[in-house]
Amino acid sequence: xxxxxxxxxxxxxxxxxxxxxxxxxxxxxxxxxxxxxxxxxxxxxxxxxxxxxxxxxxxxxxxxxxxxxxxxxxxxxxxxxxxxxxxxxxxxxxxxxxxxxxxxxxxxxxxxxxxxxxxxxxxxxxxxxxxxxxxxxxxxxxxxxxxxxxxxxxxxxxxxxxxxxxxxxxxxxxxxxxxxxxxxxxxxxxxxxxxxxxxxxxxxxxxxxxxx
Length: 212
Fold this sequence. Notes:
The protein is mainly beta. Helices cover 11% and strands 46% of the residues. The protein has helices spanning 15-18, 60-68, 185-189, 206-210, and strands at 2-6, 12-13, 23-29, 36-43, 46-53, 73-82, 85-94, 98-109, 112-122, 135-141, 147-155, 161-166, 178-180. A 13-stranded mixed sheet has the order 2-1-3-4-5-6-7-8-9-10-11-12-13. β11 (147-155) and β12 form a beta hairpin. It is globular, with a radius of gyration of 20 Å.
């Protein structure tokens, strides 16, 4: 593994400089590559959080045993590429509270890995999404060319749209935002040339919604 020390602002620093800081981050990369495997968040020489990026060929139980020796609080992330989308599955452990992780699944477009389009909480027992906790975002750019979440959606237990908040008319002024639900979704769609039917239900991936 290749180690890189960074300050809390993400700037690369030396090890000798890092240990003088109250807080710093230690990045582990696979040898001779830029593939990030692990980030340790360190404060006063103690690891208070770890982000670990698991690969297909790793044993999840072994990774868990490795991480729990370092910290009570850590997140294991697995990324899968599916038809132009990135699905990130996160298992967040807080062992001082519970042995069971908080599981979430987040979807990004391949060409925009920074802005999620869907986020779901997964039930530990059933491994199924709790649809009423799903959040979806549709993005566009403002007058300055900055991308922002122009439509934010929440859902009912059956996966139908509960509320879509449209900010496009006045992104900075909440009083001018428009609200739509499952029954008025066609009025929201009529405002856009882009097909936004994906946002009518809590389905994880767009192709699932388009088949309905």
